[in-house]
Predict the structure.
Amino acid sequence: MPPFPGNIDMEVILQTETDRGYVEVDLGAITRNFRICADKMQHGQKLLAVIKANGYGHGAVPVARRLEGEPGLFGFAVATAQEAYALRGAGITSPILILGYVAPEHYERLIRSRVRIPVFRADQPEQIAQAAARAGEPALVHLAVDTGMGRIGVRPDEEGMAYVRRLLQTKGILAEGMFTHFARADETDQSYSQLQLGRFTAFRDRIREETGFSFRYCHASNSAAILELPEAHLDLARIGITLYGLEPSGEVDVVGPGLTPALSVKSSIVFLKTLKQGESVSYGSLYTAPEDRRVATIPLGYADGIPRGLSCKGSVLIRGQRCPILGRVCMDQFMVDVTHLSEVSEGDEVVLLGRQGDEEIRAEEIGAISGRFNYELVCLLTERLHRVYRE
Ligand SMILES: *Cc1c(COP(=O)(O)O)cnc(C)c1O
């Protein structure tokens, strides 16, 4: 035997990774969440499942494979060209829309892959037309309209109208859709969303009157608006955070409609010891034992996406009980207090996020404690954490 095997068995590597800790994704929960939101749509209105940022950390390809073919699904929305290629590479054939600016280097390949490109910049129609000519196929585009988010999009005014006319006259471009994005749909007071929706539909109507053209798909709603603003559903709605069972904000109820979180983070105790009175834990010795304490070491850290902001705050679940985090969270490990558990051993399951027994730690709770937004928390679970899929 050579000292280092040339052929490392991937199964063995993945198994070991799973032992250190893993992200468990319940695809059944994602399907149920999708169906609950699809039921809120009227006849003919469809959903675009937003699976940018690797499906908010849940895994874009497994989520897309699971949802493809669901009644009520129009297709998928992503943030970047690379995310679109990854889906096409995995055999996803549904419509895909990119939601942000895409550099011209990608246009030809995106056109060939039938990926919808958002347009709003002055230089885009010409560049896209050239790429369409090279590809020998028309480009499908969605016009982004800025009705009050102030991010991307043409304004719904005279200048916007001139842009639309130019777009409609450009050979090789099929203007399939127009969309806008709400800045405050996650607030109880929907007056700003109403204002945005009014500007959007007025612009849509003006385009129809002045050019005779109707965009096939008009869309405005995000998750919050899907739950709270039915008049904004139009032709398509973009479902992101609620697909994963998480809250758009504290002002939007997701428990009432029956949405459930799909993602858990699990690990196990790798080391147990007694910390003697006066001894301390982790960098900076921020925790010193007031008397003898039982302390467990968990082999995950901020390089896995566990917020360092949980240092000396927050807790994990072991044997169905909350165990407080002691001292600083390190890059790859952290410690918790298990003194109050009647029984505990090395190898015990540790739930950092999700349910164990009757207890649950939600992304919103960890977000609030660590100063990290719930969307951000799940997106930032790193690739080092292996994803395990369950039904
Ligand atoms: C991310 C995003 C969404 C999804 O928002 P959620 O709040 O997660 O539902 C919808 N539309 C656009 C343009 C986005 O960028």
Observations:
- Residues 191-211 form the longest helix (21 residues).
- Residues 50, 52, 99, 181, 222-223, 238-241, 248 surround pyridoxal-5'-phosphate (CB under 6 Å).
- The radius of gyration is 24 Å.
- The chain has a mean pLDDT of 96.
